Amino acid sequence: MSLRRVGDGPGAAALAEGSVSEIVIDGERCVACGACAAECPAYVLTMAGDQVSVAAEERCIVCGHCVAVCPPHAISHRGLPAPCDAVDQAQGVDPRALMQLIRSRRSVRAYADEPVSDADLATLIEAARYAPTAHNAQPWQFIVIRDRGKLARIAESVVCHMESRLRDLAVRSRRGALAEALSPDAVERLRGMAPTFRTVVSAQRAGRDIIFRGAPALIVIHTPRSAGFGAEDTHYAAANIMLMAHGLGLGTCLVGFLVGPARSSREVAAAVGIPADNEVGAALVVGHPAHPYHRIPPRREPVVDWL
Q1: Domain, as residue range, for 31
Q2: Nearest alpha-carbon partner for 223 in 265, 280, 183, 261
Q3: CA 125 from chain center: how many Å?
Q4: Cα 193 from Cα 277, distance rounded (Å)
């Protein structure tokens, strides 16, 4: 195989003659330190003496590690959607302040009658998109709902779904035919959720918003059903949203009462605006807390095996 170099310096990459690489190494800048090859998770880059080689570009997951780790900024990647921002090493993060932020975050269920600004919501989405994802797939999509009328319609669809499931459980149990329509595991899950469904339905029908807690905004994170680890990826994004919201003085709470029904009912998913080929992974309400928290409740001691 004939090879050509990208640039002329000691670390210039070797590529098959005539190929066009997404990874471009400036040989004039490259100092052949090997950091890019060492950090590449897919082993796309390798070191051979003082030369960086693009060994198997088809494996590249476009994570940007090679660009981010290169000290002299000798690497660029045509597959990245935009240039990489420089890390402000001087800014840093105080570990004690970060731990305080993590420990003092609460799941907020009482909100002030005050909207969340578009700028703050955009900041939350920005934080979410920098969460890790499996294989750097970045499969998540976001729906941000601020229309209280739409929130009410979504809540109504959730309640109708829960009422329908409770009726199914009652009718099929009387007929002894529940297992004919559902798997044994599904039957047990439905029976286990029935008390919760009854509580939610009763509260909503009495005029208490137990689903969205009167919050002014809802963020729903969904992914294509084909995403290999879509649900996990949405959870990481949700964690970033919760911490960033806390840093902005906002409160959040995960909405499990929506996620389950939206996964099992096309009517609920459609009310939210989820495409037919996608699935909800996480949902959070966002708003200004009605009450400040003054203390940090203790947590159970972790069970850790130190090996």
Answers
A1: 3-77
A2: 280
A3: 10
A4: 26
Report how far residue 130's alpha carbon sits from residue 145's, in angstroms, rounded to the nearest whole number.
Answer: 21
Residue 255 predicted with pLDDT over 50: yes
100 and 42 part of one domain: no
- 63 and 181 both lie in a single domain: no
Task: Quote the CA–CA distance of 273 and 283 in Å, as a whole number.
Answer: 13
Taking only the tens place, the pLDDT of each residue in 16-69 is 444 457 899 998 999 999 999 999 999 999 998 888 888 888 999 999 999 999
Q: Is residue 20 classed exposed, middle or buried when 0-12, 13-18 and 19+ CB atoms within 10 A define those classes?
A: exposed
DSSP, collapsed to helix, strand or coil, labels residue 77 as strand
Instruction: Give the Cα separation of 263 and 52 in Å (integer).
Output: 47
CA distance 66 to 34: 10
- The DSSP code for 3 is E
Q: In whole angstroms, how large is the CA radius of gyration of the chain?
A: 25
